[in-house]
């Protein structure tokens, strides 16, 4: 068992798992897990949820032929102010806000990471730096009805580092409910409210600071995934696996 206040594990009230294509680095699909737990009365008198995510993948099956420069892969998850039912392409996101909005979001992320990578300014985690910037200076997303980055936090986790010469790849071990990659708390959120929310995962494969800058934003791989964790028994592989 994992208590609500333990940040190194989660005993989820609800959990979901969605396979994602993140080729060419990972030839097999990677699986994005999203889970949450609830405390009826949190720090104050109101409810609170404990939110987490992790990836599972075949880390022994990484395509080293895809490693042509120094890159870092990161994953992030935003929860809040977005409802609907994931469906359609772009890993369920087009059913939430439509294909043009998905295109706007991916393009904004690619362009912001591109500007960072070509600016000469030091950075260690490109997606994390990009999201921090977008939360303060929201990008123009003409085809999106609602603001996408207007949440209190978007936790980011680096999970793969590519290095040349070699080439070699250092990948973080797959996560689980016993070893989630990120855990954070959302004050004032009930489990019913969070179950109705669509969580948006962002995965980016970007140049590291010490690599040649990209020539175009299209060289930066960005994938989106929209998930919803139903209440009740966990969905997909068991939380202990």
Task: Describe the overall structure.
This protein has one domain (14-227). With 241 residues, the chain is an alpha+beta fold. It has helices at 94-97, 99-117, 126-136, 191-196, and strands at 14-20, 30-39, 48-56, 71-78, 156-163, 168-171, 182-187, 199-207, 221-227. Helix 2 (99-117) crosses helix 3. The relative contact order is 0.28. The strands form 2 sheets. Strands 6-5-4-8-9 form a 5-stranded antiparallel beta sheet, with helices on one face. It has a 4-stranded antiparallel beta sheet with strand order 1-2-3-7. Mean pLDDT is 92; it is low at 231-241. The protein starts with 13 loop residues before the first strand and ends in a 14-residue tail after the last strand.
List keywords for this structure.
single chain; 241 residues; alpha+beta; 5-stranded antiparallel β-sheet; 4-stranded antiparallel β-sheet
Range of helix content: 10-25%
Rg, please? 18 Å
Distance between the termini: 14 Å
Largest sheet: 5 strands, antiparallel
Characterize the overall form.
Answer: globular
The number of helical segments is 4
Quick overview:
With 241 residues, the protein is α+β, with helices and mostly antiparallel strands.
Secondary-structure map:
Layout: E1 14-20, E2 30-39, E3 48-56, E4 71-78, H1 94-97, H2 99-117, H3 126-136, E5 156-163, E6 168-171, E7 182-187, H4 191-196, E8 199-207, E9 221-227
Antiparallel strand pairs: 1-2, 2-3, 3-7, 4-5, 4-8, 5-6, 8-9
Helix pairs in contact: 2-3
